[in-house]
Design goal:
Blueprint: H1 11-24, E1 34-35, H2 38-47, E2 49-55, H3 60-76, E3 82-88, H4 93-98, E4 106-110, E5 121-123, H5 129-140, H6 158-164
């Protein structure tokens, strides 16, 4: 038995299991998506506007949308006041319960300065990368556009954002 809590026949089975686990992790090749747990999540929402995806490695819908979420994170990288983060539901059950996440992927927005007791705002309806970018732009005053997007009149100006922060 290994020190990781599972039994294995030999070294090759053990290495294969580790490789399988590594490959299953979504966002492992998306450096702009911040993978957070309870502690890092609390710090992040206190300092930045945050778009969060609750996900599971085994979820086919999460796997299908992971490249789009990584694209959103990359697009918002230059916006210092914004972070794009992901929470693995199998590793952060306390956050899943707190925010009543019943299916994945689930998307939430947290305003800069939120605390761990904040409820956040769940983004529902037709959720795709364009709608997520639009929702984040409207809530935090950014003007990020993905290829194919048209600017919205509802996006706040920098001055409006400064007054609301």
């Amino acid at each position: 038995k290994s020190g990781l809590g599972f039994s294995y026949q030999g070294e090759s089975e053990f290495l294969a299991k580790l490789e399988e686990e590594r490959k299953a992790i979504l966002f492992s090749d998306a450096p702009d998506v911040k993978i957070v747990d309870h502690e890092t999540f609390s710090r992040l929402i206190s300092r930045k506007h945050v778009l969060v995806e609750f996900y599971a490695d085994w979820c086919s819908a999460c796997q299908a949308s992971s490249d789009d979420f990584a694209e959103i994170a990359e697009a918002f990288k230059p916006v210092e006041r914004v972070a794009v983060a992901a929470i693995n539901i199998d590793r952060s059950r306390d956050l899943v319960a707190k925010y009543a996440v019943s299916s994945v992927p689930a998307y939430f927005y947290f305003k800069k300065g939120s605390t761990s007791s904040s409820k956040g705002e769940q983004i529902t309806g037709q959720v795709n990368k364009y709608n997520l970018v639009q929702a984040l732009n409207e809530r935090c005053g950014s003007r990020i556009l993905l290829p194919g997007m048209v600017p919205s009149d509802e996006t706040k100006t920098e001055e409006e954002l400064a007054r609301s922060d």
